[in-house]
Queue: 2 jobs
Job 1
Amino acid sequence: MANKRKIINDPVFGFISVPNDLVFDVLQHPYVQRLSRIRQMGLSFFVYPGATHTRFLHSLGAMYLMQEAQTVLRQKGIDISHQEGIAADVAILLHDVGHGPFSHVLENTLISGVCHEDISLSMMQRLNQQMAGKLDMAVSIFTDCYPRHFLHQLISSQLDVDRLDYLSRDSFFCGVSEGTVASARILKMLGVVDDRLVVEAKGIYSIEKFLVARRLMYWQVYLHKTSVAAEQMLIYILRRAKELAHRGEELPCSPALRYFLYNDITAVDFNGNDNIIDEYAALDDSDILSAVKSWQNSNDKVLAVLSRAFTSRQLFKVKLLEQPLNPQEKETLTAQYMKHFGVDEYEAKYFYDIYSVSKDTYSQQDDSIDIIFNDGTIKDISEASDMLNHDTLTRRVVKHYLFYYKIV
Amino acid sequence: MANKRKIINDPVFGFISVPNDLVFDVLQHPYVQRLSRIRQMGLSFFVYPGATHTRFLHSLGAMYLMQEAQTVLRQKGIDISHQEGIAADVAILLHDVGHGPFSHVLENTLISGVCHEDISLSMMQRLNQQMAGKLDMAVSIFTDCYPRHFLHQLISSQLDVDRLDYLSRDSFFCGVSEGTVASARILKMLGVVDDRLVVEAKGIYSIEKFLVARRLMYWQVYLHKTSVAAEQMLIYILRRAKELAHRGEELPCSPALRYFLYNDITAVDFNGNDNIIDEYAALDDSDILSAVKSWQNSNDKVLAVLSRAFTSRQLFKVKLLEQPLNPQEKETLTAQYMKHFGVDEYEAKYFYDIYSVSKDTYSQQDDSIDIIFNDGTIKDISEASDMLNHDTLTRRVVKHYLFYYKIV
Amino acid sequence: MANKRKIINDPVFGFISVPNDLVFDVLQHPYVQRLSRIRQMGLSFFVYPGATHTRFLHSLGAMYLMQEAQTVLRQKGIDISHQEGIAADVAILLHDVGHGPFSHVLENTLISGVCHEDISLSMMQRLNQQMAGKLDMAVSIFTDCYPRHFLHQLISSQLDVDRLDYLSRDSFFCGVSEGTVASARILKMLGVVDDRLVVEAKGIYSIEKFLVARRLMYWQVYLHKTSVAAEQMLIYILRRAKELAHRGEELPCSPALRYFLYNDITAVDFNGNDNIIDEYAALDDSDILSAVKSWQNSNDKVLAVLSRAFTSRQLFKVKLLEQPLNPQEKETLTAQYMKHFGVDEYEAKYFYDIYSVSKDTYSQQDDSIDIIFNDGTIKDISEASDMLNHDTLTRRVVKHYLFYYKIV
Amino acid sequence: MANKRKIINDPVFGFISVPNDLVFDVLQHPYVQRLSRIRQMGLSFFVYPGATHTRFLHSLGAMYLMQEAQTVLRQKGIDISHQEGIAADVAILLHDVGHGPFSHVLENTLISGVCHEDISLSMMQRLNQQMAGKLDMAVSIFTDCYPRHFLHQLISSQLDVDRLDYLSRDSFFCGVSEGTVASARILKMLGVVDDRLVVEAKGIYSIEKFLVARRLMYWQVYLHKTSVAAEQMLIYILRRAKELAHRGEELPCSPALRYFLYNDITAVDFNGNDNIIDEYAALDDSDILSAVKSWQNSNDKVLAVLSRAFTSRQLFKVKLLEQPLNPQEKETLTAQYMKHFGVDEYEAKYFYDIYSVSKDTYSQQDDSIDIIFNDGTIKDISEASDMLNHDTLTRRVVKHYLFYYKIV
């Protein structure tokens, strides 16, 4: 019998233990193994070359923090049964299982109207079937149907182990020390009141710091204009490829990618359709990167030019716009590309784009971060903090960019 | 005009500066950009899931250390001209440019008789042509034709910046703190005597530590039996694919991979053949991983079984052998696989392998590590160290493994 | 001739170089060596046992950052002469030279009306005399009399290398990762416009993070109630000792401490009085700690009880007060201690105290942190940041504590 | 009732938990609190200015590793009762309690014939009395009288948690990354066979690395010639002070130091003599540093000169000797100091010294480090390692130094 009590080396948290056989089996499932071929940060490696860590490692890290959180809560007298603990471990391990390669890109091109959260649930349910219901409680925690809400909050809320892991991990692999989050300290401050997670008042500064770190990571790293430029370029490449596929043109690509390129898959199709789920589960970063590379030699001018640019890191240039482009500016741009590449007006629009990014630091629509004071009163962090007031915390910042192909 | 004085974030060394336009242009060349799609540690991510960093980042890191080394040597009065400095930067940046995806695997399957060092040189020369000879001095340092030998030693010797970078970097991304090398300290100790690198005597302990760290990284990480098992499995997959290709069977794969699968490319072909070099430069990790994934559905039993196992991380099991298998043991194994898979004797041998790994800690055939004492005498580290004596340092350790597919 | 180009190991920044002979001589001066016997964080080690690093190491670290800042500014075309560079190095090396042991404590007990900044200047001037005017420019930069204001800002402003060092260093030694400041990144963003330091707009997030880290360090570390309790206890001990000394009682203490215990030294005395400066320069942490230890056996009840409590870490207990104590509460407390210790009313007040701490995150009275945008406009960070608005940044937070001796 | 379940911040290991009330009470005892005023690395701060961490923090860190070791062993099925666990925690917390300030110095001057290990035991026994026998088991484990030998080995052997902590900790605070020991990994490899600690075979490389790191720390850090020079200087200062005290001269010093300066305390006196133990427990670094500082103004030439040199870091110069000084060389040196300082021949010998340091990397006299192989065989590391052979590992390296006061 194989030893399933593995210990896995993680450069961020040290040793991560696989707590029991069920978790080991989940970990070894092709659905989860596939995450080891999907970069956690998508195309950010174009800007931060260290950012090639995978969703597999992130899922492991989040599970580690989940185990730590359970230890802390148990020490504080919160009863969490062994079975609940394992179910929560499995739920967090699978929380990202539905992520496709470059998820944001895919959701705008190959697959319409489906978000990765829904796919995660579909895949989790299929996995549960295969495992004869052993994941029932995990699914129930994941969907917030399990009576103990705080377990769900650990998986999905504004202070969940998902965020605690990815902020620390992404900043580690990018080499951006400022994104580091003191996850160990924050976990030590956790408690449960009325079935909801609360943070001890002396943890306020750590929470402030966590929110500021998150804000910094968004604007400096995740929404870095060059990463977004790469993403926009890949979106245009896949849109064009899909367009050509519709027209019946033959494009080199892997069978897995072909399925989504030559078929129109929408949310409805996904529902309980095991076949589509399996096709989806065959897709990872390598299919996209390998295909784009081969499209450099396409006969289609648009596809070839963009694929070459993407592969050689000649990404879209980016300009921050004070105000939207007016029609005449657009016309000038279009004309320029028509002339340069000898393409028609429709095709010329593949060479530039206007894109808006927006992000709030803390959302009061979501599950709040609750601070508990010594006298037992509980306040939302946006009230409890005397620094991060309601307005500034919840204000949505929007920025408009012009992306354009630079003719040399 | 674009700003080419970039600063790049590296989680290991902090900020890495691109020193001038030439280096920037080299960095942006598709040959070098391709390295950002090749994992530095090949299949080690199966064991150390953090180990997904790229040869691109390693090359940058080695260039950083090269710059540091130059600063130290200049402070000690060694004259290194600006042009020499840049040439050495370029040479180290390109030292790995010829690495294919999973190099060791490729050199045993798709390409015969060519090692990546030779390809690096070919690619560097082609790059030099394209850049109108601007890389002349870099090539000359790389091939040790440049009169100042120590510059070559910084690129290729037993204490080169290549090793200083990859030991620190690989241990960082694996989370194996023991492999960390005090590169900054070692560089501070460097000097040049008679055109050769020397290390100040007070650096002996750091050198001992460096050799022990290297030894540890080899046995614990690079030659970890599970990594080697994954490598052997991939070798068998590609060999089988090539065999099928020879027979004229159609296998899904990218155009780049197809070239090497359906043609027999040997060392001779590479020589100055620009076409082959370009085909080779189109190949990266994604082609291999994507193809193997699609081969899971092959009609060929051997290819399908091994591809499925590889993709789902059901790797070969490994047994350390005290002595070689005798013919009868081999027969038993063969018979077992014939029966289980319904394959013939020849095919059955795809399911197990005997493999020997060997490594010395320090080789006296190579350029030695020279220690200089206060009185000016110079000794090889294997003499200078009172701990690491000649015998133990240079002894070659060999281990024999049996790899086999585990029937469940 | 001695080699004065030393390299010093620093756990925070790695290797710190002594750039020339003048800096070496300053470093070796007894005034500066004395800083190696003064803890940077005073009594914080009672809470964070790792926080025993010295003002000497902090001064070195600040000098390292000063050198880094100069490198960055020079690369951006700001001309800083060699002499100016060295002068700024010396100025930052000496910026804390006037700190006494547990400065805050001393300034409330042994020395009246003198702050350590003034003493730093006096000592620097005396040093300059001894060195025949070699520190003229350093003194001039320190006092902001040198025509180039930005050099002074590097030493003393809201974004000076002093803060950049101590936040990183203190968080490192305390093990409070959240205080870490990305000093390298912030320095990379520095520029000089109209002789004033500015920060590039893309550095806004790092500055926000820096201010939040600073805020966190103040409330979580520097003003930690147990540290403040220890400080208050030491203040009461030294006040009592001085009182007894006034009465002519003989207390064991070192000659250096005796001078300040048995004489009344005020700001006026310090002015250019070399003798007092030398007495002051003889004082460090060891005199205070050793004396308090020996006072455990004093015949004076108050001194003995408090000294014993301090030495055994039975520190004052702390209660956060919603509102000031009313006269009756005070009376009750006083009566309690009178009864317990058999002391009179006056003496009883040595066993409790009300103390208020206050801190702002960013002060607009001080030199502002100026952000420069791509179009050349410059804004104060409190305007430039869309998160940290004017009000919240500059609001002064005040907390009132009751400290009291706990009778067991 | 006070909350005694404290969590303490440690920059090396993160959070350290105080597991129960007994441990808390031990931690708060003046004997243990005194360790927070004793530097772990004595005078090494003269060379590594970060090395000011205390024996208190080291003791805490070793306790943390002890807890980790227990967790690992329990997971492997080794039964360790709660009581045994706590006793081992207490034993390691107290293992260094008998260390005086600058122990090596004291053992050569103020106290004759007593080593700190013996004093540790005496103090532990006295503590046990005060605590009504609650430390019985801890004392019994410490003295290896407890039936379970492996618990003693965790406290004192060649792979004990003492060494695992101090190597990592000292390298951390010195900024010498090469001394880092992968304590977490080594602990994971521990097992118990026949009541003895063993290390799993796959841990061999980590053990090799541990021994090499230890060797490096000894030669590069602990026995750094400047640290040893500082130590020798302090030995001479205290010897001279004791000599003067014998003659009846009055020297400023704290009462605690006075006791050992004006009395002759030997091993015999210590035995069960509570008074002496209490006097000893009053002594820490501050007494020595403060006294030496005040002796700068002594009328005795020797004491004044050496005390001034020590306080201003004008330490003895060091020369590595190929062979012992011959009588004539000694005479010349003596004459030189007689002339320069106007002292007699006997006094002149206070200005230079010959000193030999020696160290082995691994001692076979001590408890061995045992490696267990998969087949159950157990070998000593010096046999199990194919790199670190018996001879080299156990060879004692000796170096002879001449220390001398440099006349300027």
Job 2
Amino acid sequence: MRHFADRLADAVEQKRSQLVVGLDPFPDRVSDPLSFCRGIVDAVADYAVAVKPQSAFFEVHGADGVRAFEETCAYARAAGLLVIADVKRGDIPTTAEAYARAFIPLADAVTVNPYMGGDSVEPFIAACRREGAGIFCLVKTSNAGSADVQDLELADGRQLWQHVSQLVDTWGRDVLGENGLSAVGAVVGATYPKEVGAIRGLLPRSVLLLLGIGAQGAKPKDVVPAFSAGRASALVSTSRTVIFADSPAAEARRLAAEIWALSG
Amino acid sequence: MRHFADRLADAVEQKRSQLVVGLDPFPDRVSDPLSFCRGIVDAVADYAVAVKPQSAFFEVHGADGVRAFEETCAYARAAGLLVIADVKRGDIPTTAEAYARAFIPLADAVTVNPYMGGDSVEPFIAACRREGAGIFCLVKTSNAGSADVQDLELADGRQLWQHVSQLVDTWGRDVLGENGLSAVGAVVGATYPKEVGAIRGLLPRSVLLLLGIGAQGAKPKDVVPAFSAGRASALVSTSRTVIFADSPAAEARRLAAEIWALSG
């Protein structure tokens, strides 16, 4: 399979969109995740470049939910969408290898957690090399609690998220696509605009997956600096404002156009 | 359900064991995870206090694997073993709530990742309060790569794992059992004996789940300081040396007795 960042850049140009729609079938609002997600995929396929199914909202239904997750991924890919499996896994190398094998065939990219360090992420990067996949590593997340660990001040004066940015840059250095972007991207909370700009500077080759737009309070204009490395160098993910809108298609189209205009 | 730490302490006393057997059905060695894990459960039920199924080795088989995970958990509980679901999840609060609902009914305890901070762990702690469950939060993990993030030196001179220890102590302070131990425990790599002792000091009320004994190179004698808060204040998890032994029962009995003797 072609390099993830090149496939992504093609899709961004073709659809004039950097919109990612988070498939979050909250168990209290959605009784049948598969049918719900199929409906959203049908509605947004022309306006979004990717969907991001959140594994937890499928796993909460047990094995049947995981089957729905698999089928949702396949359905979205058949509709011409890239799939980012939001699983945030991280484990010792032999275990991480099993996680990579579990998710890479289903999805074009996965989210990973850096707490356990480079050897826990390496099996996912190997899958990027081998199968043209991508990963997005948590750097500075959108929730309030992210400060507890990610904002800690280090002995050299930097904050932890700056150090993790540097790790991500190192991890992604030898998996570049033809367009110069790496298969190793970063998850950044759009709820922290100052950090978005700083992380852009620290990660000149990484695609930033920006979360927290919409229900969590961030606005598209908060993430403009993320696009300074090119139209395909950042993705903007939103979920509730699209998937529970009266017209998910109209809301996706509106948001995609707004972000595209800001990214130029 | 009764408090996790009290149920654990009862099991430790009754079985004279702090042994946890990691159920790691490596996909290259095990074709049928459920049948394999049932065999191990039958063999070790008298000698181990808990089993720790590693979710990745089930998820790699897709929805069928997740069904096997569910059935493995049920089978182990029916055999009188506590179940620690090794899932290392961590996500924003609404998502973490779904993960807690996915795993707490299946297992007595789960492992969690602290990178996203207190609000990502809180839904799991709520499940501890509500359902008598336990959690084990990653603090200092057994792999070599753990140094990349967990050993970072902070501005106040401590290392990151010391700060995370303090967070874990705070998170667990108001979920104490009758025996004084908290429902919020910590995952510590027995491969780092110096850190085991230090974390014991920082977490006087937490059960330490010690990993890395056996195939990863640590020995039972490396973790003696972990037991200074009581016989039930630490668990020693091992996997490959038991589950792939000629006689898993004999190896589990031997290890349980060795650890019990060291813990007194």
